[in-house]
Amino acid sequence: MRRFFWIVLILMNSYFSFGQWCNKPNPQFCQGNTFQNGNFETVTGDPNASTDQDINLATGWQPMWRTGSLADLHCTGGSKSTGTAPTPNSGVYAGIWIENRTVATTTNPTFREGMYNRLATPIAQNSGFYSFGFNIANALLGGTQNNMPHNIGIYGVYNPSNILANAPQGANSNPTNINLWQSSSSSVQVVLLGIVTTPVPFSNTWIPQTVTFNSSILPAGGITHIMVTADDNARPDSYRKIYVNFDDFCLRKTEPPVAWCCPGDNLVRNGDFEAGNTGFTSQYTFNGATTTWATLPGQYNIVTGAQALAISSGWIAQDPGTCTNASGKFLAVNGATTGSGRRVIWEQTIPVKEWGRYKFCAYAKNLKQCTFDVKPKVDIEFSLPFGNLSETLNVSAGPCDWYKFEKGLDNWGYGTSLNIKIFLHESQPGDGNDLALDDIALIELPVCPVSAATFQITTQGVNAATYQVSATSATTPQCDKVWWKVCEWDMGANACAAGTEMGPLTAWGTANTAFPGYTFGYGKLYKITRGTWGDCHAWNQFDRYVGSSLRTKRITSYTQEQYDKNRTTILNSLK
Question: 111 pLDDT exceeds 60?
Fold first, then answer.
């Protein structure tokens, strides 16, 4: 009996040892997630019991091959992990070797190591657009390999029977994508959904990534699994190897891509310049010729990528919507230099709604010249008091790499007419100062629904004088930004009591929070506000009040409607 007691005690200590850090499921981190256990927090054993080859401890996850190539499961609080643990602490996470090589001399499947998730809900072909985000971090911070980009392949797999592939055979241990399951079953189909390239330099701080795909590319049966591994492209270097950590896979249906930065009608006329030289004014002169050096300093043209190259070999740009030389137009400006001040290169006046909420976006890139190149400095100014934008353009040389200006504009009763001017500074000496503009847009935003801001609270006593409040809520894809504020509520003034307000804080910027650093005391009333918004949805908020009797220590919460109807009763309940 005594031996049994000690065995139970050891097992309990072992459980609480890893349970302190791990096995803390949070299904609210991604509402509607198609991944099973996308944040790895549901585990059947201690992730720190083994350094590697234990991804199958995470519910819903398994290896790629029947033998070998198991990805690794780690927990931030443990010592059994590969390399440097990522920051900030994220509980349980996974890691794999990403090895990109041109020549393979081994049949060991480790060289295509990966992890494999059986989706909670299969995704059907032609069922819409999907987007999933996840975080990556570098576990090995030293060595030349970390100064090279490494490609991570994200694959969709049709595999309803959950067949695990045989390890690849032959001299090439990095099989092509379509051959990943060929040795096991011809019924399994694989499609590449996207490739993520690791940044340089690559730190151990979590970096968010996003892959979006149209389900029209899926096999006829759709996909039942998602696989993460190295892609099958050859590399210029004979050997590359890096250990990458992963966490928080969130896969959900999304809106289809839009022509502008947000869904909705573009209030800017001819914002994509497809209608040519119309809808805007400029202090520069239009020159529609597309012969060599036709567009002179102080002039602009509306061109395709091919026409821009015909004018100047340094004007390497492609319409950001088409990313081809053949189609899609943009505004190309030959900026003046060695002058003074700045001039308007684009201007338009737009009717707006008083009390309307909008998103402004525009794309720009510098058109480099060979020598003494001047990087264009651009200002964007709004006639209403929204705050202006300014940027010196230094976009990479890729023809479809553009800098994106974007800003939310809340028209809180400022007027019904908005004038937008885009200026180019001309005082710098040198050549160049040339730039391209495209997809200028002003979109009216819908307000986030109240349901996206709603939250619940629970309370727990701390001591005779104070208690803790925990708020729980769920983010939605459209309204995923979160803002919390707390204050002691003065019912007489119907306002926050002076000096009691706290928030928003970075530490509170999640769907669930216990408001660390704020003290709730008995006999007082507090107001808690949760605001939410998104890239293409405007702000909305939800308020709750929480109060407690000083005598009985009974804690009660109220919605705004309940507070408005029962102020006297609530005041008496605090005594």
Answer: no
> Sign of torsion, CA 233 237 238 242?
negative
How far is it, in rounded angstroms, from Cα 140 to Cα 245? 10
Q: How far is 405 from 544, CA to CA, in rounded Å? A: 36
Helix intervals (H) in 129-268:
none
Same fold flag, 285-444 and 450-573:
no
pLDDT tens-place string over residues 290-330: 999 999 999 999 999 999 999 998 899 999 888 888 888 99
The per-residue DSSP string of 157-175 comes to EE-TT-PPBPPP-SS-SS-
Topology given in CATH for the domain delimited by 285-444: Jelly Rolls (2.60.120)
Q: Which of 223, 231, 234 is nearest to 127 (CA)?
A: 223
528 burial via Cβ count (<10 Å: 0-12, 13-18, 19+): buried
Separation CA 217–CA 124 (nearest Å): 10
DSSP structural state of residue 216: G
Q: CA 389 from chain center: how many Å? A: 22
So where are the chain's domains? 2-254, 285-444, 450-573
DSSP secondary structure, 468-525, as one string:
EEEEE----SSS-EEEEEEEEEETTTTEEPTT--B---GGG-SSSB--TT--EETT-E
pLDDT value of residue 114: 80
In this structure, is the dihedral angle defined by the CA atoms of residues 90, 91, 92 and 94, taken in order, positive or negative?
positive
Average pLDDT (452-457) is 93
The answer as to CATH 3.20.20.70 being correct for domain 2-254 is no
Q: What is the pLDDT of residue 249?
A: 93
The alpha carbon torsion through 170, 198, 79, 5 (nearest 10 deg) reads -70
Query: Rounded CA gap, 380 and 347, in Å?
Result: 10
Q: Give 9-41 as a 3 state SS string.
A: HHHHHHHHHHHCCCCCCCHHHHCCCCCCCCCCC
Q: Give the C-alpha separation, 265 to 271, whole Å.
A: 11
Distance CA(508)–CA(528), nearest Å, equals 12
Give the model confidence (pLDDT) of 223-267 as tens digits: 999 988 876 655 445 556 788 999 999 999 887 666 788 988 899
Q: What is the mean pLDDT of the chain?
A: 85
Secondary-structure class of domain 450-573 per CATH: mainly beta
- Give the list of residues 6+ apart from residue 110 with CB closer than 8 angstroms, or none: 68, 69, 97, 99, 173
Q: What is the CA radius of gyration of the chain?
A: 29
